[in-house]
Write a structure and sequence with these properties.
The chain is 30% helix and 36% strand. With 243 residues, the chain is α/β, with parallel strands linked by helices. It folds into two domains: 5-146 and 211-241, Rossmann fold (3-Layer(aba) Sandwich); 154-209, N-terminal domain of TfIIb.
Length: 243
């Protein structure tokens, strides 16, 4: 995962994803139900927005894996507002695969929301191997994908705007194919004032491995995991051990 990419919009990230928080929480809840205690790992935790839900679903110990220093500012702020969450959550200051050596030997739940496309094929293979070895019986892995699921050109798209007081942040982006597996996203955030005057423009470029749920299903099967459920209206799926 690319720290520099997230440093560009980390200041605004909480506002940019605010409208998605409720449907994301509902989707995760539908796939997990109650966690029944145990160890829960959130890979690519970002600002920690899903951690309160995971705690409320029954997580005993939480591990927030986040390599971006800029995003960890928001992550620790999330923890600091909730003393119970602060006591339960260990922040792992690196990404995968480096984080694996810093995590417990067994995992009851793993969440990975809008992150897996950042991994190259070798690292994603290592992730599946660790899931196959460490996920407990009855354990679940919940993963959310981002588009595109196949390598296509995505024309410049307006992804909407969010207001922060009198200001507004407008998001747009486009993707171009790099090879038969990867696209390169160019994302842009524009801050405008109440009069519609542009105050600041920020741009970030990152590569993304195009993946579909069907792709993940094949990879999961190789380590003894199968689909346990899918979220309605959202590219999010749960995997569990086949037994």
């Amino acid at each position: 995962m690319d720290e520099d990419y997230y440093a560009v919009n980390a200041e605004w990230y909480g506002a940019l994803v605010a409208d998605w928080q409720a449907p994301t929480d509902e989707a995760v809840r539908s796939l997990l139900g109650q966690c029944q205690g145990g160890v829960v790992v959130d890979i690519g935790s970002g600002t920690g927005s899903v951690l309160p839900l995971l705690r409320d679903l029954g997580a005993e110990k939480l591990y927030a894996v986040e390599p971006s220093a800029a995003m960890r500012v928001g992550l620790v702020a999330t923890l600091g507002r909730d003393r119970d969450l602060l006591a339960r959550t260990t922040v792992i200051r690196t990404g995968v695969p480096g984080a694996f050596d810093r995590l417990p030997g067994q995992w009851d739940v793993v969440t990975m929301l809008n992150v897996i496309g950042h991994l190259d094929d070798g690292t994603r293979g290592r992730l599946w191997s660790e899931l196959g070895n460490r996920l407990t019986e009855g354990g679940r892995f919940v993963v959310a994908l981002q588009p595109p699921e196949t390598v296509v050109e995505v024309p410049w798209t307006d992804f909407g705007a969010v207001r922060i007081g009198e200001n507004e942040i407008r998001t747009g982006g486009a993707a171009t194919p790099v090879d038969d597996q990867t696209v390169e996203w160019t994302m842009q955030w524009t801050l405008v004032n109440a009069d519609g005057e542009e105050r600041e423009k920020r741009t970030a470029v990152h590569r993304w491995r195009a993946l579909s749920i069907a792709d993940l299903e094949v990879e999961a099967r190789d380590v003894g995991l199968t689909i346990s459920g899918s979220a309605e209206g959202m590219p999010m799926v749960g995997f569990g051990r086949t037994g």
